[in-house]
Amino acid sequence: MTILLIEDEPLVAKTLARLVRQLVPEAHLEGPLESVQSAVDWFVRHRTTESPDPDLILSDIQLSDGVSFDIYREINPKCPIIFTTAYDEYAIRAFKLNSIDYLLKPIEPDELKTAFDKYHRWKQGDRSTDFRDQLRDLLADMSAPSKKYKHRFTAHYLRNIVPVNEDNVAYFCRDEVIYLFTKDGQKLVTDYGSLDELEDLTDPAVFIRANRQCLVNLNAIAGYQSHYSGKLIVSLKKPVGGELTISKEKAAAFREWFEEG
């Protein structure tokens, strides 16, 4: 089994390669390739020599010279792809719709194992999933006009369902149910099923997935500090107050989002 690794962060690539070798010790790893251009060159070179495509691709989305979707627009691989990303907006909007596996950084071993289990089921005869069709649909979705996002949300207040405007939302947080925290400090219960659902509904220029539990509004953030571990500590404006933690893997994406707004 040949697995192609496309990843521009050396430490992430090293960790991912180690996890793959633990799960599939007999696999032959190619890469890591760090850029769109190097990946395109790899496919051109191998197809010229009549070498087959890899059996599986593990592909980061954000690479040193662009996004990996540009690879697949030029090179239509015949094998399944498991995407990895620290950018939730790519993952949720693209892959949830098209049933293509993705791993959200930091990569958990159990999640990688689940993705490989799906691949093995497909390889052993469950061909109900046409990965090439999914990839084509995915690229079409990514090229489609921007969707409209929700700017008003509903929540429970006393016995009523009340509207909460986007500019009054500090953040959403998951703790068995999804809570909406308003900018004046109210904690309201919502009927949303998951943060994934909410992330698909909210404008990524306004909201960002701070971590697996929280989706925060840019306008509720007072600032952030860098932690010695590489994480970021985000402070929220009063009267909500408090802090949220951004993982080391998501720190660069958060800084870019925070600066661009």
UniProtKB/TrEMBL annotation:
SUPFAM superfamilies: CheY-like. Residues 2-120 form the Response regulatory domain. One of its GO terms (molecular function) is DNA binding. The keyword Phosphoprotein applies. PROSITE patterns: HTH_LYTTR, RESPONSE_REGULATORY. Transmembrane segments: none annotated. Keywords: Phosphoprotein. Residues 153-260 form the HTH LytTR-type domain. InterPro entries: CheY-like_superfamily, LytR-like, LytTR_DNA-bd_dom, Sig_transdc_resp-reg_receiver. The modification 4-aspartylphosphate is found at residue 60. The keyword Glycoprotein does not apply. PANTHER family: STAGE 0 SPORULATION PROTEIN A HOMOLOG (PTHR37299:SF1), TRANSCRIPTIONAL REGULATOR-RELATED (PTHR37299). This is Response regulator. It comes from Larkinella terrae.
